[in-house]
């Protein structure tokens, strides 16, 4: 176990989430003592814009924590005890392509789901491996990487194959955000909820929601049937996601449970189970990427400018479950707290009728040696089949990335439930290869060498 006070490096320091995460760290310094915070990013200008805001957040709470801003890996990771990874490879401009290209073909345009998520995965796997190698080379040998970088399911599978020994824990804040909403609906703090959950990242179901041992899923089922997974006043539950598109995301749990009421689905399942309705409500010229660029990103950069000019920092970033969750996980890893959290781990029988080596999202006790998954048993045939199709799509995508195989990429796109035909898969993939010219060299070569059918 590493000893406090810790050196923490944030890879993707220019992220819009960095100030919120650092604020979550500052209000928990007693639980997670820090000697130094380092920001690392390949976009120096972007990171240098965010850095003064981050430093202000730190100095409002501590005068002694060392603050380092760098684009040099050795400076960033030497002797580090924890690395929070939150890269967006290609930044929002490529997220916009990920979302708009499929929509031009009448297919769901989404950051981590469908063809957009597959394209995002093709960009992210190898930079994630590069980050792991840098951390392994420079950081404390007991250092943990806690990874938020999306698409988490594909990144987790790529890391399993390429760096199986790496001390990386992949996490997602969607289940914990759903639990925040459940707590608001039930009138209990989310930390009082103990859930059973199974699936892949962004593709899973809650099967029990216990409060002091009593399953409260029946109550939630009744609420969802009226309002979806939100309190009646949506903005009260999730201020960062008061955007209409996010309110709709939470409300759309209702139609899924109207059809399949047994389990409470992760909101992302709407993209796979009701894609036509999603596409009908998506604007191919103005997607979630545009909302974020004109919302969260614009607001934070304007605040940074205001702070630079006036020395006053407007309230411009969200401190919520996103920051709180990664700090919870870091504390449990650091001090062997064995807290139960939903994290992405190698299956090894936790879901009895899914492949042993699948990267699944299940409850696990977080120890200093890593996560210990809770066995969720065998899942029903309906869920197993959906999961196997999604798993195959993701695993073929990872193989396509590693081998530079156009055919496997086409199989991955064709297998994805959001893509109706192989012709749609080919048309979208070929457009994405063009758009990702700077990011997929191996696939580009295969495609240009006439491997494309
Ligand atoms: N796992 C989850 O549940 C979850 C929740 C929220 C956000 N995220 C993910 O967190 C990431 C950050 O989100 P954001 O909206 O703040 O993005 P952002 O674009 O605001 O910031 C991402 C930063 O990563 C940097 N970056 C890109 N490639 C890099 C590399 N190879 N090495 C180092 N830095 C690199 C960019 O320059 C940018 O500054 C995204 O991947 C997003 O999908 C995941
Ligand atoms: O569209 P974005 O960029 O605002 O959000 C995309 C991310 O959405 C999920 O995380 C949300 C979370 O569900 C929400 O309640 C709140 O806590 O903010 C989080 C980050 O926006 C999802 O888990 C991530 O993987 C997505 O990247
Ligand atoms: Mn997520």
UniProtKB/TrEMBL annotation:
Family: Belongs to the glycosyl hydrolase 4 family.
Cofactor(s) it depends on: NAD(+)
Chain residues that bind Mn(2+): 172, 202
Domain of life: Bacteria
Domain Glycosyl hydrolase family 4 C-terminal: 197-419
Signal sequence coordinates: none
Gene3D superfamilies xrefs: Lactate dehydrogenase/glycoside hydrolase, family 4, C-terminal (3.90.110.10), NAD(P)-binding Rossmann-like Domain (3.40.50.720)
Name under which the protein is recorded: Maltose-6'-phosphate glucosidase
GO biological process, any: carbohydrate metabolic process
The species this protein was found in: Kosakonia arachidis
Chain positions recorded as substrate binding sites: 95, 150, 288
InterPro entries, sorted: Glyco_hydro_4, Glyco_hydro_4_C, Lactate_DH/Glyco_Ohase_4_C, NAD(P)-bd_dom_sf
Keywords: Cobalt, Glycosidase, Hydrolase, Iron, Manganese, Metal-binding, NAD, Nickel
Gene Ontology MF terms: hydrolase activity, hydrolyzing O-glycosyl compounds; metal ion binding; oxidoreductase activity, acting on the CH-OH group of donors, NAD or NADP as acceptor
Note on cofactor: Binds 1 NAD(+) per subunit.
